[in-house]
Q: What sequence folds into this?
């Protein structure tokens, strides 16, 4: 009995056992899955207790990998930092950390994802200075790509992230201390974010 006959006989037995339904495995894709997008957006440090800017420029850059995005932030977010500071209202520049120091360093203060448990596309929030050590960072609005799309979040460098249902820090609020695998009632509902020192709730 040749191999073709054996294969036919096996298929016939399988068809009989499955009620004449032959199940074939799904084809394996030869194209590797593309990585999720990784983008960055910056904010300025404001002394804790001082009013947050009601509006700041949304300066976003996107990269092929998280490694490239982190290297960009560690390098001082060149170009983006200047656009951010130049677009900030003059009265709020004075409330940020000393400008010379702010220009000298940028740091990751938080990350958000479109999926639960750090899944999907990733947005990294960076800030001037060294993190939430006596300062806060406000993001009164999110780009259209991220507004009402966040499903998990995490704070870094002494930051907890408070997510708000409405722009300009309004509506329901949920604070991630420091990590939320899911945003619960705010899943897919975040429209503004504040990063505050650890132990501080929105």
A:
């Amino acid at each position: 009995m040749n191999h073709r006959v054996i294969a036919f006989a096996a298929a016939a037995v399988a068809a009989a056992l499955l009620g004449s339904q032959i199940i074939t495995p799904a084809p394996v894709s030869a194209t590797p899955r593309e990585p999720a997008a990784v983008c960055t957006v910056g904010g300025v440090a404001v002394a804790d207790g001082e009013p947050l800017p009601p509006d700041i420029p949304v300066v976003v850059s996107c990269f092929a990998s998280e490694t490239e995005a982190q290297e960009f932030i560690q390098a001082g977010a060149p170009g983006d930092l200047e656009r951010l500071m130049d677009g900030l209202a003059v009265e709020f520049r004075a409330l940020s950390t000393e400008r010379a120091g702010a220009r000298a360093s940028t740091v990751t203060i938080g990350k958000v994802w479109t999926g639960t448990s750090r899944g999907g596309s990733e947005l990294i929030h960076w800030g001037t200075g060294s993190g939430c050590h006596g300062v806060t960072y406000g993001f009164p609005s999110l780009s259209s790509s991220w507004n009402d799309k966040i499903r998990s979040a995490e704070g870094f460098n002494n930051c907890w992230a408070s997510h708000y249902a409405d722009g300009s820090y309004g509506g329901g609020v949920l604070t991630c201390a420091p990590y939320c695998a899911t945003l619960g009632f705010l899943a897919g509902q975040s429209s503004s974010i504040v990063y505050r020192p650890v132990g501080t709730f929105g």
